[in-house]
Amino acid sequence: MAAGTFAYLLFAYTPALASAAAFFLPIFSTIFPLFMFLILFVTFCKVDFRKLIPVKWIGWVCLFQLLFIAVIVGSILVFHIKGNDLVLMEAILTCIISPGAAAAAVVTQKLGGSLEELTTYTFISNFMCASLVPVCFPLIDPSVHMSFLHAFFLILYKVCLILLVPMVLAYIVKHHMHRFHQLVVSIKDLSYYLWAVSLAIVTGMTVMNICHARTTVGFLLLIALLGFILCIVQFSVGRYVGHFFHRTVEAGQALGQKNTAFAIWIAYTYLNPLSSVGPGCYILWQNIINSIEIWQKRVHAPRSLVLLVLFTAFAGTLHAQNAPDTQPQPLQPQPGSTAPPVMNIDGQPSSLNPRSTTSSPGQVVLLIGDSMCDGLGRRLADYAAENGFEFHCVVWYGSTSKSWATTRDLSYHINRVRPTFIIMSLGTNDMGYHDYSQREIWIQEILRQFGDTPYLWVGPLTWNRVKDRTIVDVIRRNTGERRFYDSTPVYCQRLDGIHPTFAAAANWVDRIAGWMTRTQLTEGQLSWNLPQQKAAFRPDAKHTPRYKGMSW
Fold first, then answer.
1. Sign for the pseudo-dihedral over CA of 146, 147, 148, 151
2. What is residue 291's predicted lDDT score, i.e. its pLDDT?
3. Where exactly does CATH 1.20.1530.20 map onto the chain?
4. In the CATH hierarchy, which fold is given to the domain comprising 364-543?
5. Which residue, among 513, 220, 223, 213, has the nearest Cα to 386 in the 3D structure?
6. What is the band of 360 on the pLDDT scale with cuts at 50, 70, 90?
7. For residue 440, what pLDDT is reported?
8. Distance of alpha carbon 249 from alpha carbon 301, whole angstroms
9. Using CA atoms, how far apart are residues 398 and 395, in angstroms rounded to an integer?
10. Interacting residues of 350 by C-beta distance below 8 A, sequence separation 6+
11. Which among 66-70, 160-164, 307-311, 522-526 has the top mean pLDDT?
12. The CATH number of the domain covering residues in 2-321
């Protein structure tokens, strides 16, 4: 954990390493799931599959988890909790409702517990979570719209990738590839060391998210403090339940150690994105407890010393809570550039903006461009509802600079909406072409149609299939640095290899809004206060790639 924290702080606050940080971040985001896969594969190679049956303590742990969820959801409904208090409750709920961590089996085995029983609980808790999320989230946040079956099968899909695939492979290796199986199990503590490396990666990403969360330090520390208390409660209750069945290690790990990567994903996808800080902090607390328990087992330290270490960590957080309400400042980008990409452990970027004291009455924002507008528009609709400006969106799938420059569509929508600010998202489908001089003419025609209306051109994300990004320089050369947002360093999890997930697109917009605030691009015109609720999104027009546009 110390190594992951130090590595992030070194790369984040050393200007000479900024380019290296942007290079390594997507690599670490990609290899983290690979490490989890290897950890589970090595662990399952040691499992006796005949012993994967439910036992009594699993039922009691599940019962207490349901009780905790009922208390949180009931409190929100009975006391009509809103605003920042709701964010706190959502942060706590995600840490409770999320399933047991896949790596909990590794720690359990290291502590001398039953690998098979913990593996059985992990599967049961994932199915329980898939059933509870579609029921609970729409209750606490009416703006959450999800189909029960859609959410259920989406969660099960993730479970299959994380748990079932390595289990099936381990079963095949164990029963049909005996030499390779013996090689894997003969390496002492292999899964433990893989877990240690993954812990360093996830700690660095967690510290990064906390440092870049655009809210007050006091509020962040309050979330961290509640996460600490919840972590102690869940581990303690789990161990208390387990002592009746002589399974204190297994039950404690089952209820206490959570799949926080999954918790962060559901927070970003369905709840207020700021609530994801809760499971982000929970990662640190649960792994501190795991590290202390493993250390205690190795040196046979008395439990009183363990409690003293935990109390010291708790007291340190409490002391920091009373510190001045300031925020550590990461490296600030120059105008026209973007900050290093901010990621959570699900591979999704995170950048939340500080609240402004002004709103944007009478302002009209038009988002127009290619298919990226579909994801960007959903989050910009949230900003419009929060900051009081009128929002319109026109999406043309597969469109290029030629599409908008040679048709009447752009002029038509500008005259129809009369925007006071235009956001153009265009360039993805222009990548890979080499007729730059012709495309520069089309770009200039688009800018001519903007007239005197202030605008921001959002550049395309990186695309693995097309390495040539010369079009980005062509666009920037014509818009100027101040009116161009370079999305090159922004890493987004993709739906299909091209388009970002809605959660990733939301955080892409958060980064753009934060950049406009820092560079004062819309100073005195538009405010970009962080949305507290989700708003309905419906584009004014949405065209397929077959659409040819309006002729002049």
1. negative
2. 84
3. 2-321
4. Rossmann fold (3.40.50)
5. 513
6. low
7. 95
8. 16
9. 9
10. 209, 212, 213, 268, 273, 276, 342, 343, 344, 507, 510
11. 66-70
12. 1.20.1530.20
Which residues have a Cβ under 8 Å from the Cβ of 45 and sit 6 or more positions away?
170, 173, 174, 181, 184, 185
C-alpha distance from residue 375 to each of 403, 414, 498, 509 (Å): 20, 21, 12, 9
370 and 537 Cβ atoms separated by less than 8 Å: no
Range 272-299 average pLDDT = 83
Q: With H, G, I as helix, E, B as strand and everything else as coil, classify residue 452.
A: coil
CA 100 – CA 91 distance, rounded (Å): 17
CATH 3.40.50.1110 residue ranges of the chain are 364-543
Are the C-beta atoms of residues 273 and 507 closer than 8 Å to each other? yes
Q: How many other CB atoms sit within 10 Å of the CB of residue 100?
A: 27
Cα 520–chain centre separation: 27
The whole-number pLDDT of residue 340 equals 36
- Quickly tell me which residue has 């065209």 as its tokens: 543
Which residue matches tokens 């729409």? 138
pLDDT digits (tens, 9 = 90+) for 73-131: 999 999 999 878 988 999 999 999 998 987 788 889 888 899 899 989 988 998 898 88
Classify the C-alpha dihedral 496-502-503-505 as positive or negative. positive
**Residue whose token pair is 């690599």:** 27
Return the exposure string of 338-358: e unless at least 16 CB atoms fall within 10 Å of the residue's CB, then b.
bbbbbbbbbbbbbbbbeeeee
Give pLDDT tens digits for 209-236: 666 665 677 888 899 899 999 999 999 9
Length of the chain: 552
Using the predicted structure, report yes or no on whether residue 383 has a pLDDT greater than 70: yes
Residue identified by tokens 């009183």 is 304
Which of 363, 365, 329, 336 lies closest to 217 in space, CA to CA?
329
End-to-end CA distance of the chain: 62
Determine contact, residues 501/351, Cβ cutoff 8 Å. Answer: no
Contact 520, 502 (CB under 8 A): no
pLDDT at residue 185 above 70? yes
Contact 409, 550 (CB under 8 A): yes
Amino acid occupying residue 214: R
What is the distance between the alpha carbons of residues 508 and 258, in angstroms, rounded to a whole number? 27
Of 146, 213, 262, the closest CA to residue 534 belongs to 146
CB 97 within 8 A of CB 54: no
CA distance 134 to 120: 23
Quick: pLDDT tens for 128-144: 988 888 888 888 866 55
Higher model confidence: residue 533 or residue 495?
A: 533
CA–CA separation, 289 vs 165, rounded Å? 29
Which two structure tokens, joined as six digits, stand for 198? 């993954």
